Amino acid sequence: MLRCSSSIAVTAGVGVCHTQRLLCSLSLPLNYTFSHSLRNPLLSSNSAFLKWNRNINSKINRFRMATRALAQPLQNADELINSVETFIFDCDGVIWKGDSLIEGVPETLDMLRSKGKRLVFVTNNSTKSRKQYGKKFETLGLNVSAEEIFASSFAVAAYLKSIDFPKDKKVYVIGEDGILKELELAGYQYLGGPEDGGKKIELKPGFLMEHDEDVGAVVVGFDRYFNYYKIQYGTLCIRENPGCLFIATNRDAVTHLTDAQEWAGGGSMVGALSGSCQREPLVVGKPSTFMMDYLANEFGISKSQICMVGDRLDTDILFGQNGGCKTLLVLSGVTSLSTLQSPNNSIQPDFYTNKISDFLSLKAAAV
To answer: What's the stated role of this polypeptide (predicted)?
Structure first.
């Protein structure tokens, strides 16, 4: 008999009783550990083990998909509205697309406010500060205060404060103006940002690029002025400055710069630095729980009384699930119904609907 632990219960992501039934169906002993299998003479060949392991993983994945709770279409908006105190909305793909307001948003927000609901707007887009986003809301005809807005640019400054980042250290920014403004408001020294967008490296024999040894953190966000100079400068700081932090505002694959198509997101810039440094960043934006914890503490909100509304499964919905909130996916942004219902998708919100203005029509239909 093979000796092992019960680690498969964690690997499969299912309960012990489900795991036992799964193991029986796989004809494996209940005390088997995958990590020890290579030592067993029955699996002495790497290729044989890999083939066997793929079969096991395939069965586990099918088992997980079969037992997950599928998202339900939102049918009674009142029931969801009355069950929570706070709605957290993503912005891109939920409130607007590019510079265009999504239909029915003003009326929906007014209705929720009339019911006494707290509204919070959380975006992974770090190009603007909270104040700058406030102006965008105003331009679109929405009455939203800066205190209700939490952008990942603000999350960077809030995180540095939470760890008592030394004020005599500097932050190198690969990103845009929003991050710089939030760092300045928090009293942190910074360099980089858009002004490094025009800098070039002239490679020649013996050339050595200098960097500031006082940089204690490199922050990477969405950057339309991204270039090789920034990659090298950030890489040098992370690799050579002792204890230098590597912080990402988010890892979104795509973003909505216009309403005509999807554009490469901040994750592409983060990926370049991660590849050159061979390090993973600390992410302060969604789906990291940092902003959720900050919001809960800031407003004294119970997470069970929050509904997270977003258009992305791997950021918005996962953000809500990681925080223990109710979740609503809207199909007005990057996620289609076919993607949600794909057998390959394991992230299932509590509910889904076409757009947030369905709160109004579904409310009327339920009366």
So the answer is: Photorespiratory enzyme that dephosphorylates the 2-phosphoglycolate produced by the RuBisCO oxygenation reaction.
Query: In which residue are the tokens 């999807």 written?
Result: 262
Contacts with 54 (C-beta within 8 Å, 6 or more apart), sequence order? none
Return the minimum-mean-pLDDT range out of 2-6, 55-59, 323-327: 2-6
CATH architecture assignment, domain 72-124+287-360: 3-Layer(aba) Sandwich (3.40)
Report the catalytic residues: 85
Arithmetic mean of pLDDT, 296-305: 93
**Percentage of residues in the chain having pLDDT higher than 90:** 73
- Nearest residue to 127 via CA among 149, 153, 166: 153
- Measure the CA–CA gap between 283 and 249, rounded to whole angstroms: 6
- Residue 131 to residue 147: CA distance in whole angstroms: 9
DSSP state of 69: P
Residue 183 near residue 171 (C-beta atoms within 8 A):
yes
Which pLDDT score is estimated for 117?
97
Amino acid at 13: G
pLDDT of residue 81: 97
Domain spans in the chain, listed from the N-terminal domain onward: 72-124+287-360, 165-283
Angstrom distance (rounded) from CA 218 to CA 227: 15
Per the model's pLDDT, the better-predicted residue between 301 and 191 turns out to be 191
**Topology agreement, domain 72-124+287-360 and domain 165-283:** yes
Q: Which two tokens stand for residue 349?
A: 């919100």
Cis amide prior to 287 (ω within 30 degrees): yes
165-283 folds as Rossmann fold (3.40.50)
Per-residue CA distances from 46 to 2, 42, 60, 159, 193 (Å):
18, 11, 21, 44, 48
